[in-house]
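pipeline: protein-struct stage 2 | run 1193 | F-box/WD repeat-containing protein 2
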Amino acid sequence: MRGGAGRGGDFQAPAPLLTCRALAVFISLQAPWLRSGPGRCEALAARACLVAVNPARGPGPRGARSGKIFHNLMERKDFETWLDNISVTFLSLTDLQKNETLDHLISLSGAVQLRHLSNNLETLLKRDFLKLLPLELSFYLLKWLDPQTLLTCCLVSKQWNKVISACTEVWQTACKNLGWQIDDSVQDALHWKKVYLKAILRMKQLEDHEAFETSSLIGHSARVYALYYKDGLLCTGSDDLSAKLWDVSTGQCVYGIQTHTCAAVKFDEQKLVTGSFDNTVACWEWSSGARTQHFRGHTGAVFSVDYNDELDVLVSGSADFTVKVWALSAGTCLNTLTGHTEWVTKVVLQKCKVKSLLHSPGDYILLSADKYEIKIWPIGREINCKCLKTLSVSEDRSICLQPRLHFDGKYIVCSSALGLYQWDFASYDILRVIKTPEIANLALLGFGDIFALLFDNRYLYIMDLRTESLISRWPLPEYRKSKRGSSFLAGEASWLNGLDGHNDTGLVFATSMPDHSIHLVLWKEHG
């Protein structure tokens, strides 16, 4: 190469200087998005030259030092002209020729130039976008990653772990997708990451059929016909003319009182209400065991009872095809509801939560069910009041309903041989029919916003209602079958609306056994 800055006009640029300058230009040309201004390439070239000529001094400020160097080696103007020429030539090459040129320049480079090249390439090629991007934009990008990938990304560096762990919305969404309840008022991102880790463990236990454990209650001497669960306590009514109240967590019997033969039970802290095969309903005091009220009037066994202290009303469903409404404190019959043509196996007294032409939020509603129909009644003291609505799954009565009924004030759910039927209580329309073709005759135990609890003769099942798929099952022993559905029940129900890390404890399912014991399925403690 020739220039005009040396003796005789001939000047051979030093190899390290050419190498650094050419590579700096090449990097800037090949990665134009890295340029922050028109002078960046020139500044980078100057610094490279300074380091190559005098690495001990480094690329000092523009002035006397840089001017002296260019005066001794090549005038700056001549150097820039030479560099422009070689840049134009380089850009005209093919990719293969460019690569060969770079290989040749690298082979001519010394340790200082290679270190310089390495430092610049690492900065240009290994961009930590989570560190450079605004936090809000990082959070937006992270929302598109699945939780397992997010956990892997947390292992990249402390900075990544800090940013990912701080994204509240990401972890809340991950928990929601697993069917967990979210309290939006809690904005501690680390809290939600821990909740997610806890959730993923519980969901894996469900998938692997390892989420539950079993226990037994032993104390009755004859068949147990009736079960009722509330707040950690399980009441059992037996053919041995007794009713017992059990603490599920300890397995201890809290109360045991002498009664009639119980076909249905319901209790609170002070009293027990029983329906009997002797065609009567009775109210008992736990503390003394005394019968405080006796309700006579049915001509068949009483299979279901419900009551409300605020209304001072008790309702009962019987094998005589009627539903009776009683004054709870006085023991007198207020009304007899007719219209059923089969045993009334379930009555539910519940406050309405939606508005329709027939009722308003806050109104109390009575539901009664037999083998084929669900009837909806107003609660009042009118004699021979008319049924508001009758629901069924087949007009010709070809399809039977399972003896379980769910009503939460907004929806009515019942199972049949065709699947689960869900009615909207505001319109009485069928919202959906959930079918499980792989498993026939699933019976309903519990129904929530996220999960449903079902069972058949062999297994207990959990269904994700968002996908209508079975996500877990648990084997059941040969329990006592009941056409009325009174000898088995679900336990805690809040988790059906979404797990939260605290409500997956206590009783899941209970059923009476042929040996007169009670078989319990309970949540296993978190690992």
